[in-house]
Write a structure and sequence with these properties.
- It is built from 21 helices and 18 strands.
- With 551 residues, it is of the alpha/beta class.
- The chain folds into 3 domains: 168 residues, Thiamin diphosphate (ThDP)-binding fold, Pyr/PP domains (Rossmann fold), CATH 3.40.50; 151 residues, 3-Layer(aba) Sandwich (Rossmann fold), CATH 3.40.50.1220; 189 residues, Thiamin diphosphate (ThDP)-binding fold, Pyr/PP domains (Rossmann fold, 3-Layer(aba) Sandwich).
- α3 packs across α15, α13 packs parallel to α20 and α15 runs parallel beside α17.
């Protein structure tokens, strides 16, 4: 339980003080941001309450760090930005939190209302600016505990997402008019729980029972909205074993099953590779599958889709035949009693997994992204936390990486924003200083966020960043060439990661071969300093791989 009850011996002197104290009571340990003159009182209050302020070099990076910590911990992430340009710079990360259902509290300043009619400089309507990518926007008042409780509740309530809270300086300086103990968070296990007994076999509609019992080649697809608790994972394994059904996990669900499970088929991206198995299926179970989990391609399968969800699917990204709502583990246990062994064999699953690996194997000895990923996964410990950036390497990493447990693989699924992995890795290492952290990104993403290397140096953390240095926005250029267009704007300058790293106070190395790459990874693992590895990879097969993955 991350919420801690806190009862003050007396009312805090200011709204700013109350705000900081309530954040601490809610389990917030770090606030990210870029300092601005409109929230100096709150910065001071955060420090007084022992909440660590992580100053980034740019607001999107700050908000991405807050969002990543929220994903890893379940506690809402908090980012504090200044009025106008601070918020506009944060839009990219707010959109990421919106699409990936991340509980993020965005706190920004605003002019006092009596000045609004005459304000031109930095005069923006914050609420209208972010209305389409937030669950709620509001302005703090002296009833700060009530407002903040609702903001955090809204951010956490399924599906989670970002909330904007304006805090004007005149309000921050005022006295609070309510008390912390009157507004505990209801989204905690101590105060809210799902009511309902086990889902009995008789509760399953007859048509669903008949569908399950008659399936000869069922498959299971697990999405990012599926609960990750141990009972649910156990129920998924039991269903797969009884049905003898291949199980795919979306990137945000990696770790729900592991490579040592004979029925784990691999990653689902709605791409061409997994169609080899799913295309032969006569029933597909989707467990918490979310549209953010896969490529923006039309659902291609004709098999009936049985959706198991904790809350209703309103996205309608696939032609669902039946939807069962409730506690996932209980529903799966009830469905398992209806299951019969299928025609699939563990050999079918193993052959498919081998075919995925074979897709990215070349016989020319070139130093490629897949080659580097295979070596990295063999060298890094299983508990390594992974942050993956947008770009050409992202789907390849999704197919080739694995995780022993959920919540160890992080990327901007829905927004797929460039510049995600570097600050995300910083946040993961700050939150889990004893756990190895690695980030994979393209050189375009590195150049967007290079200044954030200095955050790791400043805080003495040691993530490993791997940048695929091919001097191009590879995915954009590939799409241009596929359409017979000129590759305009997609080329990047040749840069040295060793020199970039040196400029920002971390270790850096440039490598041109798989042997040197392995040595660089091992070297980074052995030191207590952040390391940037520039992998100058061969991308001569990227068009071929793009066709294989997406068509």
């Amino acid at each position: 339980m991350w919420f801690t009850t806190f009862v003050s011996s007396g009312a805090p002197a200011t709204v700013a003080s109350a705000f900081a104290r309530a954040l601490k009571a809610a389990g917030v340990r770090r606030v990210y941001g870029l300092p601005g003159e409109d929230h100096l009182r709150l910065l001071d209050a955060l420090s007084s309450e022992g909440i660590t302020y992580i100053g980034a070099r740019e607001e999107t990076a700050a908000a991405l760090m807050a969002a990543t910590e929220a994903q890893s911990s379940g506690v809402p992430g908090v980012v504090l930005v200044t009025i106008a340009p601070g918020l506009t710079n944060t839009i990219n990360a707010i959109a990421h939190a919106w699409l990936d259902h991340v509980p993020l509290l965005v706190v920004c300043g605003q002019h006092a209302p009596e000045r609004a009619p005459v304000i031109v400089r930095q005069g923006l309507d914050n609420h209208r600016l972010v209305d389409s990518i937030t669950k709620w926007t509001t302005t703090a008042s002296s009833r700060i505990h009530q407002v903040l409780a609702r903001a955090l509740e809204t951010a956490l309530a399924p599906p989670a997402g970002p909330v904007l809270l304006e805090l004007r300086d005149d309000v921050a300086a005022a006295a609070p008019s309510d008390a912390l103990q009157d507004w505990p968070l209801l989204q905690t296990r101590a105060l809210s729980r799902r009511i309902g007994g086990p889902a009995q076999e008789e509760a399953i509609p007859p048509e669903v029972r008949s569908l399950v019992a008659g399936a000869a080649r069922p498959c299971v697809v697990v999405g990012g909205s599926c609960p990750t608790d141990a009972p649910t994972r156990k129920a998924i394994r039991a269903l797969a074993e009884t049905l003898q059904a291949p199980v795919f996990c979306s990137p945000s669900a990696l770790g729900m099953l592991t490579l040592d499970d004979p029925w784990f088929a691999g990653t689902f991206l709605n791409g061409n590779l997994e169609a080899d198995v799913l295309g032969r299926s006569d029933l597909i179970f989707s467990l918490g599958l979310d549209a953010k989990d896969f490529f923006n391609a039309a659902w291609r399968y004709s098999a009936p889709l049985l959706a198991i969800n904790e809350w209703p699917d309103i996205q309608r990204f696939a032609p669902t035949r039946h939807q069962l709502l409730g506690e996932t583990a209980a529903l799966l246990e009830a469905l398992t009693s209806e299951a019969c062994p299928s025609r699939w064999t563990p050999g079918d699953v193993a052959a498919y997994r081998e075919s995925v690996e074979a897709t990215f194997v070349g016989d020319d000895g070139a130093f490629t992204i897949p080659q580097a990923l295979r070596l990295a996964r063999s060298l890094l410990s299983p508990e390594t936390l992974v942050a993956v950036d947008a770009g050409f390497g992202k789907p390849i990493t999704s197919y080739l990486w694995s995780a022993p447990l959920p919540n160890q693989y992080f990327t901007a699924h829905g927004l797929s924003t460039m510049g995600y992995a570097l600050p995300a890795a910083n946040a993961l290492q700050l939150a889990y200083p004893e756990v190895p952290v690695v980030a994979f990104m393209g050189d375009g993403s590195l150049l967007m966020r290079a200044s954030e290397l200095s955050v790791a140096a400043e805080h003495g953390i040691a993530p490993i960043w791997v940048a695929w240095m091919d001097r191009a926005l590879a995915q954009i250029e590939t799409k241009q060439l596929r359409q017979g267009l000129k590759p305009v704007g997609a080329r990047l300058p040749a840069v040295s990661c060793a020199r970039i790293a040196e400029a920002f106070g971390v270790c850096g190395v440039d490598v041109d071969s798989v042997t040197d790459f392995g040595a660089a990874v091992e070297g980074a693992m052995g030191r207590k300093q952040a390391t940037l590895i520039g992998a100058r990879v061969d991308q001569s097969r990227r068009a071929e791989w793009y066709e294989l993955l997406r068509g």
